[in-house]
Design brief:
The chain is mainly alpha-helical. Helices cover 24% and strands 5% of the residues.
C-alpha cells in the first residue's frame, strides 16, 4: 500500500459494491510467483482472533507490518523462472472460451 485507506470512496468495479468500501493506492514492487510454502512460517492473528499461517488469510486481512516486511523480503529473495504475466494470453483465451460456452452468465441485463 502506498497510503491510507480512503473509506469515503468506492472502487467502481466490484461486483458487490458495498462489500469492500474504501480505496487505497498501491505501488507494485514485485511481480513474481512465489509458492505459498515459502510463507508457512509467518503466523498472524486473523480478524476473528484465530491464529493461523498468513497463507490462510482472507481478502482484506490486515497483515502486521513486521510480517508484511518479512513476506516482501522472502519475495525479493525467491528465484522463479517465470511470472503470471507470461500466462495472460492463455488465461484470456480460456476466459473467452468459457464465455462462449456459458453465454447466459455473461449477458448484460436489459433495461
Amino acid at each position: 500500500m502506498n497510503g491510507t485507506v480512503q473509506g469515503d470512496k468506492m472502487f467502481p468495479f466490484w461486483t458487490q459494491d458495498s462489500k469492500w468500501p474504501g480505496i487505497f493506492e498501491i505501488e507494485w514492487v514485485f511481480i513474481k510467483d512465489v509458492p505459498l510454502r515459502e510463507f508457512k512460517n509467518i503466523i498472524i492473528t486473523m480478524k476473528d482472533g484465530e491464529v493461523k499461517c498468513v497463507t490462510n488469510s482472507r481478502d482484506c486481512q490486515e497483515i502486521p507490518f513486521k510480517d508484511g516486511s518479512n513476506m516482501a523480503e522472502i519475495t525479493e529473495k525467491y528465484f522463479n523462472s517465470n511470472t503470471i504475466l507470461e500466462h495472460f494470453e492463455y488465461y484470456d483465451l480460456r476466459q473467452e472460451n468459457y464465455e462462449k460456452s456459458n453465454p447466459i452468465a455473461y449477458e448484460t441485463p436489459s433495461n
